[in-house]
Predict the structure.
Amino acid sequence: MPIRWTPWTMVTNMGRRSGGSMPHPTYDFDVIVVGLGTAGAIAAIASAKRGLRVLGIERLSAMGGTGTTGGVLKYYFGSTGGMYEDVDRKAQQVSGSIYTPAIGIGAESKQFVLEEEALQAGVVLHYDTTVIDVIRTDKRLRGVACFSPERGKYTQTCQVVIDCTGNADLCRMSGCKIRTGRQLDGMVQPFSNVLFKMERDHVRTFYMDSGYVHTTDPLDLSNKIMDSALSPAHLRSCFGENDYFRIAPQIGIRESCHIEGETNVTLSDILENRATPEPVFWAFSNLDNHGIDFALESSLLQDWSVNAGLWGMKLSVPIPLEALIPEGYDRLLVAGRCLAVDHDLASCVRMKRDMQKCGEAAAVAAYIAIRDQISLRKVPYGELSALLRETGCLDDSQSEEARSARSSPGDVRQWMTSIADIQAGLASDSPAIAIWSAKRIGAELGNTLISWMEQADEEHLRKHSAIALALIDRQEAATVLLEMVRERDSFIPGGRSRFHHARGYTAVCLLGRLAHQAAIPELVHILQDSGLCTGTNGKKGHHPSEEDEQFQYVSHAIVALIRIGDRHPDSRLLVSQALVDFQARPTTEFYMSLWGNSHFSLNMGARLREVIEQALLRWSATNADSRTQTDLTECFGGKIH
Ligand SMILES: Cc1cc2nc3c(=O)[nH]c(=O)nc-3n(C[C@H](O)[C@H](O)[C@H](O)COP(=O)(O)OP(=O)(O)OC[C@H]3O[C@@H](n4cnc5c(N)ncnc54)[C@H](O)[C@@H]3O)c2cc1C
C-alpha cells in the first residue's frame, strides 16, 4: 500500500501568521532577503520571528546555500551562540531518522528544518527566482525586480533589502563600491570542488581545491566549472572501486567580492588593536587562506603567515553593524561572506557559524530600523546589542581577551613580554610567537636582536633574530638573511601552522620587504637557476614537494625584486633586465600544489608573468637613469648581464 501523504508545506502554512505585526501600507514586504544561503536563511527566519513581513528569494530550490546545496556540511571554528544553534539541534534530531546521517549537519536535514522554521515564522519563500535588478531612489533601496521561469519578471517592494547573495549582487546592482581580491593580481582565495561520498553509513563531503576563478566573470566561472569537473582529481582512476559518490553541482566559492562599508574591518586594524568597541558578533578563525602563493599576497599577510609562521593562530574579530551597511546607502544591508572586510581578513571572517550570526545581526538591525522608522545607521547600539545577547549571537565571552584568558598558549594571541622568554623562543625550533612578540615591542628591541643575531654558535637564535629584526625594518638583518638565501636554508620552523615555510625563501621574502638593493644579485640568481632550491628538514606541510619549493623561491624572488624596484627607482633598469630575461626563458612553468588535492598541481607561470608585466609597465612610465644602472652593475662585480 502506498504511503499516505499530506505535503508538509500545507501543514506548516496552516499555522502561519498572515502579514506580521507591523503592516506598512506602501510596501509589499518589510524585508526582502535575497539569497537564502548560510546567512540569508537565518536572516529571513530571524526577521520574521521579530514580526516583520518577510519575502525570501532564492535562485536555487533549497535553503542553506554553501552549507547545504554546496555540500559544506562541517563547521570549522566560527563562534558559537545565536539562533542557528537551535536550527542545528533540530537538524541533528531529524538526521538519521528521516534522512541519511552525515558527518557534520546533513544537507537535507538542515534544508528541511530551515524551511519549516521559515514557514512557521511566516516567511514567504520564492524559490527558483533570481533577483535581476533593484528599485531605488538615489541611494535608498525600495525593492527588487525578480525573474522566475513561471512568473517571468516581476517587482516586489520593501522597507529594507538584505543582500545575502554571497557575491554582493544587490549591492553591485545598486552601484555600491565593491572591492575584489588581493592587490597584486585581484585574485580571491582558491575555489574547491566539493565531493560527496559514503563513509560508514554516513554522507561525508570533502573539499578539493581546484584553482582560481574570477567569480564575477560569467565566462571564467563557467570555464572553471567545466574544467574542474574534468580535473584528474575527480576521475574514477583516482578513486577506489565504488568509492566515488558525486561532485556537488555548485563549485565552492570561498571569497568573491566585498562591499565598501560604512566601516571596513581590516587585518591591520585587528592586529594593531583598532577593532570596534561595538560588535554585533565576533567572528573566530585563523587566517585560513588556502592558496600557497603567499608571495602574491599583501606584505602584512606575508609577515603573519610566512615570516612569523603564524598561519594557524586564531583571531577573534569583532564585526560592527557598519560593516554590513554599504557606504552611503540606506535600507540596504549585506550579510554573509561579502561583508566589509579586506581580502586579508576575508579568509578568517567567512566561517559558517559566523555567517549565520551575521544574518541574525542584520535581521535585528532591520527590525529596529523599520519599527522606529529610522535609518539603519541610526540603529541604537544599546538595544541592538541587548537583543543579540538574548540569543547568544553576541557574547562577550568570545572577545579576544576572554578567549585568551581561558585558552592554551598559542591558540589565540598571547604575546611574550619578557626579553628572556623572547630570547628562548627565538632560540627554539618553533619561534613564531617570539618573532611576533619581538615585532610588537619594535624599535626598542632592535639592538638586542642585533646582539643575538651576532651569536655565531646559536643558529636558531641568530637566524630567527634576523627575521624579527627585518620585521621591524632594520637593514642590519640583511647579512644573515642573505646567508640563509645563499645556503637555501631548508629548515622549516615548527609550531601550530599547517602551512610551513622554509627559512630560505622566508629570507627572500624579507629581503624584498626591506627592499635591500644589495640582495639583487642573489635574487636574480634564483631566477636564473631555480633548480637549486630543494630540500626540507622532513616536516610535511601543505607544500612539501620540490616543485612547491621552487615555486616559493621563484615567486618570492620576483616579488622581492619588484619591491626593490618600486622603492629604488635607480635599480629599476637592473631589475627590469633580470625580469625580462626571466620572461624570455623558453619555459617558465612553475607548479603549485593545491590544498586537499594530491592529484595535480597548478601551473602558476602565466600568473608570475602577469605580475612582472604589470611592474614593467608601471616602471616604463618613468625612465631610469642609465648611469645609475652602470654604477650598480659595477658595484655587483658585473655578475648581472
Ligand atoms: C569549499 C568550501 C569549504 C568550506 N569549508 C568550511 C568549513 O569547513 N567550515 C565552515 O564553517 N565554513 C566553511 N566554508 C565557508 C562557508 O561555507 C562560507 O563562507 C559560507 O557558507 C558563505 O555563506 P553566505 O551566506 O555568504 O553564502 P552562501 O551560503 O553561498 O549563500 C548565498 C545564497 O545566495 C543565493 N543567490 C546568489 N545570487 C542570487 C540572486 N541573484 N538571486 C537569488 N539568490 C541568489 C545562492 O544560490 C545561495 O543560496 C567553506 C567554503 C567553501 C566554499
The mean pLDDT is 90. The chain has 23 helices and 16 strands. Residues 474-635 form one domain.
